[in-house]
């Protein structure tokens, strides 16, 4: 008995679910770090302070990739593991996902991410609002250069946020940076500073070679003044 192609296709579509067929899920970008990436229990700007992770979605095609900001203010590379936050990420991390890590010591995060089939990225620290003779204090330059060489040798994608931030701050000047990018202290950015960091991180991702995350970056994102923040659940309660 002969069956038409259309009839066979219908049978195939009906039967596939019973044989484990599932549509491809979107990959997820997990952000881990401290208050540079997230402020407020819902990443909604606690005390007027904002992390870049609340705005990075404005630069990515969220119809093709999901974003989970799992950073937690006050965390270190050690405490993030000790408090169980990293285990919560590992529990849902799947092959094809990405992990953007903003911690100084990241070896375990890199190893664990790769073991799950995910791609880790390292992001350098941000810049403090400290000036010397009308120039931003670049006291961490040597540390960032050392990080760059370390991850180059280990072939882990590295995003230098520190250097372009320093250059941008010098260009804009102390008065502008202090009023538009920082608030009550020299460490935590306000909304303008968080958006600028997110923009520079996206630029760093775009410039990386052989970067599977690059295809999810928007070619023409909205103007920064129109960016909205993305609330996200408290990582401790997930």
Describe this structure in words.
This protein is α/β, with parallel strands linked by helices. It has a single domain, classed as Rossmann fold. Helix content is 33%, strand content 10%. The strands form two sheets. It has a five-stranded parallel sheet. A two-stranded antiparallel sheet has the order 5-6. The longest helix is centred in the last third of the chain and has 17 residues, at 191-207. The protein is globular, with a radius of gyration of 21 Å. The N and C termini lie far apart (55 Å). 35% of the residues are buried. The model is unreliable at 1-23 (pLDDT under 50).
CATH class: Alpha Beta
Shape: globular
Q: Strand percentage, roughly?
A: 5-15%
Radius of gyration: 21 Å
Q: Average pLDDT across residues?
A: 90
Helix content: 25-40%
Please tell me the CATH architecture by its name.
Answer: 3-Layer(aba) Sandwich
Order of helix and strand elements from N to C terminus: HEEHHEHEEEHEHHH
Structural category: alpha/beta
Q: Name the CATH superfamily classification.
A: SGNH hydrolase
Terminal Cα span: 55 Å
- Biggest sheet, in brief? 5 strands, parallel
Detail the poorly predicted runs.
Answer: 1-23
| Widest β-sheet, arrangement of strands | 2-1-3-4-7
How many H/I helices? 8
